[in-house]
Amino acid sequence: MNLDTKTGRMAISCGAVAVALIVWQLAGTYGGLFWLLPPSEILAATWHETVNGALPQAAGQTLLIALVGVVVGSALGVFIGALMGHYEAWNAVLDPLVKIGFAAPLVMLVPVISIYFGMGTGAKIAFTVLFCIFIVIINTAAGLREVPDEVLEMARAFEVTPRAMMFRILIPWSGPYILTGMRMSVGRSIQGALIADLFLRAEGMGLYMISAGSSFQLDNLYAAVLVLTVLGAAVMSLAKAGEVRLLAWRAA
C-alpha cells in the first residue's frame, strides 16, 4: 500500500481506528472493569437518548451558547487584533493583557463573571466569549504584521484612506490568519459553553452530564461525551471547509 497517497493514508487511519474499537470492545466486555463500557453499549445509549430527545435538547442549548459566544468573540477579536497589529501604541497597551488572558486558566474567572452577569445565559455567553476571543486576537494581530512593507508603501503612495487601508488591504491580506483563528475559536466555543454549563447554572449538556454522573448512568455519560466529540469534529470540519472556500480567491 502506497502511504504517499491520500487513499493509502486514509486506509491506514481507518484500520487503526477499527483495531482500537475492537480492542476496546473486548476489554469492555471481558475486562471486568465497570467504568470501561464497550462501544456497543455507548452507541446503544446514544441512540436511545437521541430518539427520546434528551440529547438533542441538551446539545441544542449548549450549541446555542457556543454559537453566540463564537460570533461575538470573533467580531471583538478581529477588531482588537486589528488595532494591535496596525497601531504600535495599541499593541503596547493590549499585548500584555492578551498574553495574560490567553495563558490564564479561565475557569478561575467564573466567580467574577457570576458577580457581574449572574448565573444565567448572559454569564455563559460572556465566559464563552472569553474562551474564544484571545486566539482570534493573536492570529489577527499576527496576520496584520505579516503584510509586506511594499504593499503598505504603495497604499500610502496612492493616498489610501485609513479606512480603506484597513478594510481593503490589511484585513483581506490577513485573511488566512484571521480565518484560522476563527476556526480554532469554534472548537474552543464548545468547550467554553460546556464549562459554563457545568460551573454556572446547570443547563444543556452540563446538566445532562451531571445528572448522568450522579446517578451512575455511565452509558449516558459516555453518550454525552461521544455526542460532544462528534459535534466538535463536525463543526471544525465545516469551519475548515468554509475557510478553504473563502480563501479560494488567493489561489486564483
Automatic annotation (TrEMBL):
Similarity comment: Belongs to the binding-protein-dependent transport system permease family.
GO biological process assignments: transmembrane transport
GO cellular component terms given for this protein: plasma membrane
Subcellular localization: Cell membrane
Keywords annotated in UniProt: Cell membrane, Membrane, Transmembrane, Transmembrane helix, Transport
Membrane-related topology note: Multi-pass membrane protein
Keyword Membrane: yes
InterPro entries per the UniProt record, alphabetical: MetI-like, MetI-like_sf
Regions crossing the membrane: 12-37, 63-85, 97-119, 125-144, 165-184, 221-239
Organism of this sequence: Mycolicibacterium vaccae ATCC 25954
Record SUPFAM superfamilies: MetI-like
Protein name: Binding-protein-dependent transporters inner membrane component
Transport as UniProt keyword: yes
Pfam families: BPD_transp_1 (PF00528)
Domain ABC transmembrane type-1, residue spans: 59-239
